[in-house]
Structure formats: C-alpha cells, structure tokens
Amino acid sequence: MRLSVENIEVSFPGPAGDLLPALGPISFEVADDQFVCLLGPSGCGKSTLIRVLAGLLSPSAGAAYCDRELIQRPLAEAAIMFQDTNLMPWRTVLDNIALPLEVAGMSRPERYGAVRKLLPQLNLENFELAYPAELSGGMAQRVSLGRVIVQQPQVWLLDEPFAALDALTREALSLELLRLRARSRQTIILVTHDINEAVLLADRVIVMSRRPGALVADIPIDLPRPRSAEMIYKREFLQLAKRIRNCIEDQRA
Amino acid sequence: MRLSVENIEVSFPGPAGDLLPALGPISFEVADDQFVCLLGPSGCGKSTLIRVLAGLLSPSAGAAYCDRELIQRPLAEAAIMFQDTNLMPWRTVLDNIALPLEVAGMSRPERYGAVRKLLPQLNLENFELAYPAELSGGMAQRVSLGRVIVQQPQVWLLDEPFAALDALTREALSLELLRLRARSRQTIILVTHDINEAVLLADRVIVMSRRPGALVADIPIDLPRPRSAEMIYKREFLQLAKRIRNCIEDQRA
Amino acid sequence: TNERILLTFIPNVQFAPFYLGIQHDVFSEAGFDVALEHLQEPEVLDLVAVRQANYGIVSGEQVILARSRGRDVVYVFEWFQQYPVALVHASDLDLSDLGALRGLRVGIPGRFGASYSGLTTLLTSAGLNETDIELNEIGFNAPEVFCLGAVDAAMVYANNEPLQIRNLAAAGECGDLDDVGLIMVASQVDLVSNGLIVNRGLLEESPAQIARMVGALRDALQITIDNPAAAYLASLPYVDTLPADDALVVALTDAAAQQQEFLADNPTRSEVAASRRALAEELSEQFDGAALAQFHVLLNSIDLWDADALGFSDLASWEAMRDTLALMNLLGEELGDLDAAFSNEFLAVSDE
Amino acid sequence: MQTNGKVAEFSTGRKRQIILRRLSPFLTVLLLLLLWQGVTERQIISRILVPPPADVYAAFTAALADGTLAKHTMTTLGEMMYGLLLGVGIGLVLGYAIAKAPLLEYVLSPIIVAFQSTPIVAYAPLLIIWFGTGPSSKIVTTAVIVFFPALVNAIVGIRSVSPPLRDLMRSLNAGPWLTFRLLELPSALPVILAGLKTSATLAVIGAVVGEFVGSGSGLGVLVIMARSQYNTPLVVVTVLTMTVIALSLYGLVALVEWRFLVWQRRAAS
Amino acid sequence: MQTNGKVAEFSTGRKRQIILRRLSPFLTVLLLLLLWQGVTERQIISRILVPPPADVYAAFTAALADGTLAKHTMTTLGEMMYGLLLGVGIGLVLGYAIAKAPLLEYVLSPIIVAFQSTPIVAYAPLLIIWFGTGPSSKIVTTAVIVFFPALVNAIVGIRSVSPPLRDLMRSLNAGPWLTFRLLELPSALPVILAGLKTSATLAVIGAVVGEFVGSGSGLGVLVIMARSQYNTPLVVVTVLTMTVIALSLYGLVALVEWRFLVWQRRAAS
Ligand SMILES: Nc1ncnc2c1ncn2[C@@H]1O[C@H](COP(=O)(O)OP(=O)(O)OP(=O)(O)O)[C@@H](O)[C@H]1O
Ligand SMILES: Nc1ncnc2c1ncn2[C@@H]1O[C@H](COP(=O)(O)OP(=O)(O)OP(=O)(O)O)[C@@H](O)[C@H]1O
Ligand SMILES: [Mg+2]
Ligand SMILES: [Mg+2]
C-alpha cells in the first residue's frame, strides 16, 4: 500500500497550557511495497510520526493518506510495533502474541497453532507460558515483534524493533523480516538508530532533523536484493552509510 | 571498588513449579576502577547478573563480593540503571532525576540545583517539568541515566544505557561518561549489544554464552586513553571488534 | 448523688415529667443530680440488669421477658396507668365487634414490642388468630402508610399517631378519610405498662434511695399532670424540635401561672382534668394544629398517666401480660414468681 | 543434584506456606472461641451481655432443629443476592460510563452521594409504600449500599488502564466490547475486586437494615426478635450466621482474586 | 500565527470545559429541585411523604434560626471526623501491613469481616457499656464502617506497586518510610482515594446509626425526633444536611484526587 504524508505537524500541550511543536512540518511519500527506514535524533518525532501513520494520533496540521484515503483511524491492513514493548502483564507470551488473532475472532486452537509456528523464529519456544515480568528485555521485544508478524499486515510500522537485541539476534530477525517480505511484498516503515541496519534493510532512508522533526535527507538505497550481512563490508554500502552519517552529523551545529 | 563474582548461578521458578536456570555458573573479577562491558545473546542473564551485583537479587548459588565483602543488599556506593527506564510516572523529569538525592535527604533547592546542572549534558533542558508519559523513548532513557549520574556512584551498573538513543546522542553521552570517569576513576559495568561501543569504552569486554550465561571470552582492551570516536577506524580497534564478533558468532552452532 | 436515668427512644415531650423534675428541682430536692439518656428499650433494660445504671424506664412486658432470661430487675413505679397501645382505623369502619378484624390488613412495626403484645391481646379477646388477619410489618411508619391506604388498621401509640393522622386528614392528605376510631388495648384487658425499673442488687442495698427516687418521680409526674403548660415549657430545652414560637411560649407561660393559682385551691382530679381540656380549647382558638401537635401529645399522654394513686401496679395486670407473652411463645425458661417482678412498697415508704 | 535438591526444598517450602495460609483463618476462629470461653468463664463481661459458647451452641442447635434459622437465613440470603446483583451491576456499569465520560461524575455525584449517605429511616415510608414490606424493599436497601464501592472502584480501575495498551487495542481495531473484555476488565480487576470485597461485606448490613424497617422474616428480624426477647444466645447465633454469610461472600471474591491474579503474584515474587 | 491561534483556541476550549465541569453538579442540583417542585405540585407523590420545597425551606430557616440545626450538625460532624480519622487511619495502616504480609489477611479476615457485617443493634449494649452514650460510641460506629473500604483499597493499592520501582527504591537504600512516602503512597493513591470516597460517604451513615443506638444530639437524633413528630419537612432538612456533609467530604477527596493525579490526566489525554 502507498503511504503519503503531507505537511504533517504535531503539537502537544505543554505544562503551561501552551503548545509544544513535536513534529514537522514534514511531507514524503512511500510507494507501494517500499521499505523505508527512519533515522533522526532522539525526541525528533519519529514515534509520533509512526503513531500518526497508524491512525492513533491526528496531526495538528496536515494529513496522512494510505492509498489516497485519509488516515483517520487505525487501518485493518496496518500493524504497529511500539517502541516500548507494551505487553499485557496478565497475559502469557502465547496470549500476548495471539492477541490480534483473538481480537480478529479466531478460535483458541487456531490462534495458538499460528503463534506456536512463529515461536521458533523468535527463539521463544520454551517461554510460551511465561508472563512479561519474567522475560528479559530482548525477549519482551521479540514477543512484541511476534504480535506484529502474526497479523500478516500489508503495512508494517516498526518503532525501533531491534533496539534491545544483540547483534546476532538482530541480524537473524531483520533477515527474517526481509524474507517474509520477499514472499509477499509489503510496505514497511522502520525506525532505527543503527545506520548499518538502515542501509542493509531499506529501499530508502529518511533522515529527520531535531525536534520538531523535518525532512533532512531522503536517500534511496539502490543496493541489490536479496541483501545479506556480508554486504556491510562492500564499498557501496560503506559509502551510503557514510553519506547518511554526514547528514546526521551536519545537524550537530 | 573491586567487584568479584564467584560461581554465581541464578534460577527462577518456572510456570510448572520447577526451577529454570537463568545464569551461570560464572566467575570473574573486576579490578578497582575498571570499565567492563558485558556482551551476550538476548536472555543470557546479563540483566540478572547486574541485579545480583546491585544487591537486588541473591544468587541461587555462588556469591558476589565488593571489596571482599559479600553483597547482600544494595551498596550505598553503587548505582544501577535498569534496562527499562523505570521512571515514576507521577514525577516530572526533574523529580525523577532528583529522586536519589531526595532519598539521601537533600533539601529541595539543593537537589533541584544539582539536577539542573545536569540537564544540558542530557539535552533535557526544556523538559524538566514534563512527565514520563510525555517523553520520547530516548528522552526517558536519558532521564534514567541522569538518575544514576546524579548519585556520583563509585560503582556504575548500567544495563543497555544507550539502546534507545541515536548514534550522535549515544556517542556524546558515552564520551561524557568517559569524561566523568576520568575525573574520578570509578568501576563501571556496562551491558551493551554494540560491539563498537564496547571496544570504544571498555578496559575489558566479557562475552557471555547463551542462557544460562557462562563466560565465553574475557578480552582486555588495551587501546590508549583518552578514547575518541575517530579510533573506530584504527586497525587495533577493528581487530578487537573482529575478535569479539568471532567469539559471539562461534556460539551460533 | 449523680444518677443516670435511662429513657427510651429519643428526647420527646412524652418524657415531660423527667424534664420538669429536673427543671423544677424535684430530683435535686430529693438528693439526685439526674442525667437523662435515651436508649433503645433492650439496652435500657440490660444496662440496669448489669448495674451500669440504677434507673431505667421500660414497659412491663420487657420486665417479664427479661426476667425469663435471667435479668433480675424489679419494676417499682408504674408510670403509664393505661397500656398506651391502640388499634387505629377509619371511623367509617365498624369495629365495635372486634371479630370484624378478620381478613383486614393490619399494620404493625414488627413482631416485637408493646404493639405486638397489644395486637395479640386484642385478637385473643376477639377469639381470633394471627393468621385470621393480614399482618403487615410496616415499621414505625403507621401514619403515612395508613393515610395512603396501604393498611386498613394499624397498631399505634394512642397518645401520638392518631393525632398525627387526624392532622393529616384535616390537611386533606388522607384521601376521603375524615376521622379515625381508636380501640384501646386497655379497654379489653389491663396490661402492665411503662414504668421505672431498678436492679435487684440496688433494691437490697439501698431501698431508701429507691424510695426517694420513686417519690421524686411521683411528684414530678403529679406536677406534670396538674400543670401541663409548665411541663411543656420545661421540655423545651430538651426537645429541640418542639414547636415553640414566641406567641406560644407567652401563652403557655401565662397559662402555667394561672394554673398555679388554680391549684392553690386544691381542686379535685376531675376538676384538674377539666382545666386541661379548657386550656386545650383556649389554645386551639389561637394556634393551628401543627403548632399544638406536641402539646396535644402531652395532654393525651397525661390521660394515660393520670390516676388516683400514681405508681401502683397490680398483680392482675402482670398476670394478664404474662399470659399474653406465654401465648405468644416469647418467654424463656427462668420465669420465676411474678411477685418478684414488681414492688409497690416504695410508694408506701415514700408517703411517710 | 544440587539443583534437584533445591527444587524439592523450594516446593515443600511453598506447600507448607500454602497449608499454613489455608489453616490460618480457622486458627483465628479457634483462638477467638477460646478467648470467648475464657471471657465468659471468668465473667470478665457479664454473661447477660456475652453468653458462654455452650449456651450459644444450644441456641444454635435449637434454632437449627426447628427450622427458624434456615428460614430466616434463606430470606436474607435471597434479598442479599438480588441486592448484590442489582447494586454491583449498576455500580459497575455506571462506573464504566463515568470512567469514559468524566463529566458524568460531576453531574451524577450529588445524586449518588445523597443516596449513599442518607440513612434508611429517613426514607423508610417511601420504601414501604413503593416497594411494600416484601423482599423488594430489602433488595433496594442492599443494592443502595453495595452500589457505591462497586462504582468508585470501577471508575478508578477503568481509569488506570494503561494508555499505551489502549493504543494497542485501538491499533487492532478492537471494538468497545473486546476492549473491555481483553484490556479493561483484566487490567481493572484487582481494583474492582477490592470494591467487591467491600460490597460483599456491606451486603449483609444492607439486607438486615432493610429488614429493620419492616419485615416478617430474615436475619434482621430474627436478631430484633431475639433481642426484644432478651434471648442473647439467639442474638449471637444470628449475628454469627450473618458473619458466616459475609465471610463466604468475601471468601468467594478472594478466591476469584486468587484465581485471576496469578500474574501479579508471579511478578511480585 | 497559526500556532498562536491554536493555542488560544485550545485553551478557551479547555477553559470552557472546566467551567462546564465546575457548574455541572449545581446544574444537577437545580434540575433535582425543579423535579422535586414538579412532583409535589402535581401531587405525584403524596406531600406527606415528600413535602414541597417551600415547606422544607421554611423548616430549614426555622431550624437555622433557633440554632437547632447548627447544634446537631456540629455534634455529628465531630463524631464523624474523629470516626473517619480513626477508622481510615487504622484501615490504611492495617491495609499496608496486610499488603506487606499477606498471611495477615488470612489471619485477620474473619475478625475484620465479622466487624463489618455485624449490625450495630447486636452489640449496642456492649458499645454503650464500653464507650458510653457520649460521642465516643458514635466515633466507634463510624470508625467501624469507614475502616473497611480504606483497608481493602489500601491492600490492593500497595500490592499493585510496580516491582521494578520497588527495586529502584531498594537500590537507593530507601528505608520503609521513604519507600512509603516516595513510592507506595503516590503509586497507590488513586486506589486509596477511591476507598476514601466510599469511606467519606459511609461516615455520615456510621455516625447517624451510632446516634440511633442512643444519643441526645446529632443529626441522627434530629431525624428521628422530626420523624416521631411527623415533621417531614424537618426530616428532609436533616437528610439534606447529611447529604451536604457527605458531598463536601466526597468533594474534598475528589479535590485531592484532582490535585495529586495531574500526571494521570496528562498521560490519558
Ligand atoms: N503525549 C505526549 N505529550 C506531550 N509531549 C509528547 C508526548 N509524546 C511525545 N511528546 C514529545 O514529542 C516529541 C517527539 O516525541 P517522539 O516520541 O515522537 O520522539 P522520537 O523521535 O520517537 O524519539 P526517540 O528516538 O527518543 O524515541 C518529544 O519531544 C516528546 O517530548
Ligand atoms: N523474574 C523472573 N522470573 C522468571 N524468569 C526470569 C525472571 N527474570 C529473568 N528471567 C529469565 O532469566 C533469563 C535471563 O534474563 P535476563 O533479563 O538476565 O537476560 P538478559 O541477558 O538481560 O537479556 P536481554 O539482553 O534480552 O535483556 C531469561 O531467560 C528470563 O526469561
Ligand atoms: Mg521514539
Ligand atoms: Mg537485559
């Protein structure tokens, strides 16, 4: 699906009753089935943008569209992975991942079946009955990712999905993501702080400015697909990474 | 201060009433004023180890010592930064950072003064009156870091302190950490998933195995100090990073 | 000495003799510094039974019930000479033959207390059973419930509720009801009624003190009977809600002074009763029903108190009460001699 | 080997604790009984006011044998149950509504608080005339008193639901019913159950007080009848029956709590 | 410019909402008054049961003028306040203890529930013997009834404190008092305040019911005196006074809530 963001601005009420600009104005379009990585300094409005695209927050100005339709409420085709893991503490791993299926009205055996198929990929096989409080940070994040995968969405909105994961797991899961996408192409917007990760995964990297985040650079990544971890040491890769790093560092001033 | 970990094992009660090993057995010593980075796969017990060292969890077997004294309760000289930000939702940024000072009995003007001096370093100047729910993920993490810095501890136990931060902020804050430490040398144990970060900061990198985490490698980092971001491109640096990566990848089997 | 007298219910003009006794120094002249407390009847009895207080006012029925459960209290002064409970009904309902109660809806506070004993007595003397009528436990809400037609008749206190019902009817609030009829339980059987109780222990230790108290109470009661206006005025400080606008207070003050002069001539009992009725009529020309309601309650009460010799209770009334209670199956095992339940001897002693 | 030993030790320790917990209420009751016996034996309080256990036991068997106790208990139980259902039901529904539309609280609070704070004597005549002297007036008094704790705790419980989890449910396009069932109810459950504990124990009072106003049967009637007959042992029997009812209701809520809040216990340990 | 416009719009919208909220309880009261007037004017309910507002107003001014109302109100207020302090105080302390040592709940629940579910008539004689007919017996009845909601909500509130935040306080070597003041109290506050709302409205009932047992002054006495004289307007005045007291207490708790739970409102918006 095709996402477009037109002059979006978001402000939040501040402590004094005033309005604090948090995002924008920012505009861009994401073509059908594009994989876009969002980069930007902490607090620049990346999560806010994701929430607008998810239909959870209406912008103070401007508008977001999905396939030319105004996004006013959450879309059935989109799934969001929140920056904090946002699990239900009273549900086991199994039930947390199965939540979207339960909301969709799937029967218990069906949804447990679907989730159990997913657990090995997420490396959570032995933890289906654990509660969130009994998980490590990275495990909780994988549960949260599982909750998105299980929805088989057309549009993925991922807010720093791998932040709490070690390099190996991170790599494995991001390649898994590419593999899933290769089978049925989907639109993905992924927020990350890792430049290499962005270059490795994306068709396009968008770099945002400091708060309120505007568009600083929009860099197409024309590396061939399928991508693999070895590419990191290729010259084109390094160049792209360097270019992005420069865009970011230019804002230091 | 000198930390030592002797044959520590931690198990948690599992859903069936059985015991699940989560960590160890693991032993190592951290010399006075050493900076140690802990690396290891997700769920291997890094956070658990940090909690043992902080005196928040007694190990199922083995013991941890600080300056030869058994760690049985939290030490006054140590401060811990939790993996999740763990802020009090009813306190503003200012009051969250000031919490340790309030516990220590410092008067309000004094502690606010101390915290306000810290805010520019953390890039939180305009948010002292914001509540945690109004912060971005990275901002919350910086608040949480501020809460440790304000304690001026002898022993720093940092659990993925920069995970939610962009590259620039991350770099700035980790160099800030080195600077603080240069002035009065302290013992630091820092959990991270970023190999470059580990090499850049540490005197020594400890790599742990999969759950239950045992010691896989203990690699001294003999790069000269003071360190700076440019070192990343030096040969010695790359070699060390490579070596650590290999240690981690060896466990893939 | 400091002395608590435990009264029932709440401050009310019906307790005028006690208020007057304090206000007019009747108790203090007898050597008592009296404090009044209002409690529920069982509490009054139990506190006297365990000697937390020396004196209490309860109905005779309670004495028999409590004695049958091991509380050794003695009734030493009958205050209400007539059993105050009555059945109220619409005046167009002919109940001259009590058998006509059959099938009627009769309201009662509950299956306990004086109203229940009274109803049972009425039914018994009519040869009826409880199952012959439709009994409704309506709590202490008889005037409203009766007025709005939810029951055909109700057990009430003769000195209070009928008056309220008449007032409501006069105000046109009771539909087509114009007047009510009353059947006094006392008209069928003489049952022992409210009076002063003491603990057996006190009775044995200091009979003289009891005699003084009985004497004082009798004097206070007599003054109240003789001069209701004074008694009403004496009640004002105790019963906050008594109607007492300035005009009424002035009128009553005058009336009390006049009555004092009238009493100086030692009028007979019936002359005094006539003077009360005269006063009531005189006042009703000047004030409306609401303003006089509580004064009328006092006058009605006095009719139940008045007797040639105040304070005496006779064995027959005790026996009648005991039989009623036995019939109702309310008595415990320890029912001893009825003679031990009451005593008239202090009346004689205090005369001397 | 070492680990196995620990597992064993761990679970016997846990079992012993659970047994202790199960027994402790009974131990308390036993202790109270002994205390009671002692107090009456030594006449520390007059036996008129606190009859000895033996007398109470005798009164109990008598009341049981002639069916009095059963009859009155059934009446009160029935009134209580309907009252609880009605009061708690309305309380939870209204609490939910208020949590969603805070303005409602401001609009309704005068009425609600007035209801809760008015002693029943004040509207006893209305009660009898509208609801008669049958069970319905007691159902009303019970409902009125149990309503409030259910209400305020429902409000707080629903309001405390985590906003990010609300966002999650919204992002899944969950309707109000699913949001309630999957998010709001489990999240608010601990607080709502606390409200129900209060409601459960107040229910007995509500029914009994309703019976005081005017009633033919029920434990409230029995207690007044026994009291007016100075049959203190029967008073105690009746009161103990009320306590047992209240305790059972309380225990029921505690059981639900135990059953559904496993996760909270596990997180705290 | 645009942003400024929005700021203005935003804050007037907010202001209007706040004003609406402040007014709404009064609007409700006004509406009720109109309803009341209508009901009595058209005699939908007999004036015997529900006197018209004018009569009630007359009774009110009269009771105010001769000081009756003030006197009885002061008595009840005093009893209530002490009762609240005592009951809520013990409830919170015990609730805290139980939250910390769950075994205590099992040990104490029979006693606590028994206390809560026993109608006062049953132990009225003991109450009077031990506490007299003065204010202290009413303080006790009030304390008994307000105790329970404070207790159960304190238990749940303290139990729901986030375990990671407990770890944080432990890591700072905070003692029990600081942990309570800085973590447990603010965290449990919403739930505790819900308990206090229930307690606040029950307090009036507690004092009044205590007065029913035996007392010379207080609103409970006044309501019965008025009732026994069939002075329905005065009954209504007394009941309204109770309601106003309960509402004020409730309002006070709501105010504390409003003041201390800014963060929850901000997070929810
Ligand atoms: N609910 C809110 N109320 C008020 N301000 C908010 C709220 N949510 C976010 N903000 C503010 O909006 C700005 C952008 O926040 P956002 O979470 O989008 O940042 P981000 O780019 O995701 O940062 P990070 O990388 O640290 O997660 C921040 O300055 C934050 O303080
Ligand atoms: N309270 C608990 N109860 C039961 N199991 C727990 C608990 N805390 C942690 N564990 C288990 O202990 C293991 C180690 O957890 P820990 O949080 O130490 O991992 P970690 O190395 O920090 O991982 P990550 O990098 O993902 O944060 C995990 O398998 C986890 O499931
Ligand atoms: Mg973010
Ligand atoms: Mg961890």
Protein architecture, described:
- The complex is a heteropentamer, with 2 copies of chain A (about 250 residues), 1 copy of chain C (about 350 residues) and 2 copies of chain D (about 270 residues).
- By secondary structure, chain A is α/β, with parallel strands linked by helices.
- Chain A has 7 helices and 10 strands.
- In chain A, the strands form 2 sheets. Chain A has a 6-stranded mixed beta sheet with strand order 6-7-8-3-9-10, with helices on both faces.
- In chain A, helix 2 (about 95-105) crosses helix 3.
- The longest helix of chain A is centred in the C-terminal third of the chain and has 17 residues, at about 165-185.
- Chain C is built from 15 helices and 10 strands.
- The two termini of chain C are about 20 Å apart.
- Chain D has helices spanning about 1-40, 55-65, 70-100, 100-115, 120-130, 135-160, 165-170, 175-215, 220-230, 230-260, 260-269.
- Chains D and E meet through helix 1, helix 4, helix 5, helix 6 and helix 8 of D and helix 1, helix 4, helix 5, helix 6 and helix 8 of E.
Quick overview:
The complex is a heteropentamer, with 2 copies of chain A (253 residues), 1 copy of chain C (352 residues) and 2 copies of chain D (269 residues). By secondary structure, chain A is of the alpha/beta class.
Task: Describe the SSE topology.
The complex is a heteropentamer, with 2 copies of chain A (253 residues), 1 copy of chain C (352 residues) and 2 copies of chain D (269 residues).
Chain A: E1 3-13, E2 19-30, E3 35-39, H1 46-53, E4 61-66, E5 69-70, E6 78-81, H2 93-103, H3 108-122, H4 137-149, E7 155-159, H5 167-183, E8 187-191, H6 195-201, E9 204-208, E10 215-220, H7 235-249
Parallel strand pairs in A: 3-8, 3-9, 6-7, 7-8
Antiparallel strand pairs in A: 1-2, 1-4, 4-5, 9-10
Helix pairs in contact in A: 2-3, 2-4, 3-4, 6-7
Chain C: E1 2-8, H1 16-23, H2 26-29, E2 33-39, H3 41-49, E3 55-59, H4 60-67, E4 73-78, E5 85-90, E6 105-108, H5 113-125, E7 134-137, H6 142-147, E8 153-157, H7 161-170, E9 180-184, E10 194-199, H8 200-205, H9 207-226, H10 228-235, H11 246-263, H12 269-286, H13 289-305, H14 315-327, H15 345-351
Parallel strand pairs in C: 1-2, 1-3, 6-7, 6-8
Antiparallel strand pairs in C: 3-10, 4-10, 5-8, 5-9
Chain D: H1 2-41, H2 53-65, H3 68-100, H4 102-117, H5 120-131, H6 135-159, H7 163-171, H8 176-213, H9 219-228, H10 232-260, H11 262-268
Helix pairs in contact in D: 2-10, 3-4, 3-6, 3-8, 3-9, 4-6, 5-6, 6-8, 8-9, 8-10, 9-10
Bound molecules: adenosine-5'-triphosphate (ATP) (2 copies) and magnesium ion (2 copies).
One adenosine-5'-triphosphate (ATP) sits between chains B (12, 22, 40, 42-48, 83, 211) and A (133-139, 164).
